[in-house]
Amino acid sequence: MTDFRALVATLPPADGRVIATAGDIGTIRFDHAASRNALDPAMMVALADAVDTVRDARVVLVSGAHGTFCSGGNLGAVRTHLAVPGAGHAFGSFMQLALDRLAALDAIVIAVVEGSALGGGAEIVVAADFVVAAPTARIGFVHARLGVSPGFGGGGRLVTRVGPHAALRVLAFARVLTAAEAQAIGLVDEVDADPHARARALADELLALPAAAVRGAKRVVRAGSPPAGREEELEVFTALWGGPDHQLALEPKR
């Protein structure tokens, strides 16, 4: 199977878009109303490029247009272009790398979930650091209904987020969870009637803190539990201790 990006370059133009904006608060937004923001091959490439656009952000908000997040892969495009032997490895590995890069950003990544986040859309959700969902949101790892399994790295991330037993229930039964059910197992952090406003408020809280300290917090968590993560934690602590933000915080308050 050829390189996925090269393959996509040979396909007819598609209507779907992934819109990214840079800044202290970067944004990534899926936009294809006809498919409830399902990802066609060109949108997958655009998502990978969007990660580059937001690489210098301090907070990244990931959301969907038209009142829904992302309903997975565009089945029409999958049937037409990707339902051949070898294609699964090509676009699966491409999307794994894209979501690995999203998760590895120094920025805090917040998924803002309205409507449906299904299949590959649910895998994008768990690549975020925090998830804010509308009460009417629905999240489903529905891969088993299509005779497949997670392929974008979302299975492992789901285990990390909710634990192996809960992850197996979510994957094996392929049920679509309400926002409340997803919050109960730790898949969603907050449920809010206006998830966009709540995510912006969280972003503002993060921007009010020293940027290096927030990046350090993410590095410490990413490094993992002791003993593996202890050396990284000490390295982050040493770099921040006595630095300008620390010195400012230690100044007597007047």
User: What is the overall shape?
Assistant: globular
How are helices and strands ordered from N to C? HEEHEHHEEHEEHHEHEHHHH
Portion of residues in helices?
40-55%
Structural class designation: alpha/beta
Q: In percent terms, what proportion of residues is strand?
A: 15-25%
Number of helices: 12
**Poorly predicted ranges:** none
Question: Which CATH architecture of the largest domain would you pick?
Answer: Alpha-Beta Complex
CATH topology heading of the largest domain: 2-enoyl-CoA Hydratase, Chain A, domain 1
Per CATH, the superfamily of the largest domain is 2-enoyl-CoA Hydratase, Chain A, domain 1
What is Rg? 19 Å
Name of the CATH class of the largest domain: Alpha Beta
Number of strands: 9
Number of domains: 2
List keywords for this structure.
9 strands; 47% helix; 2-enoyl-CoA Hydratase, Chain A, domain 1; alpha/beta; six-stranded mixed β-sheet; three-stranded mixed β-sheet; 2 domains; 254 residues; 12 helices
Topology (elements, then pairings):
Layout: H1 4-9, E1 17-21, E2 25-31, H2 41-53, E3 59-64, H3 75-82, H4 87-103, E4 108-113, E5 116-118, H5 120-125, E6 130-133, E7 138-140, H6 154-162, H7 164-173, E8 176-178, H8 179-184, E9 190-191, H9 195-207, H10 211-223, H11 230-240, H12 244-250
Helix pairs in contact: 2-4, 6-7, 10-11
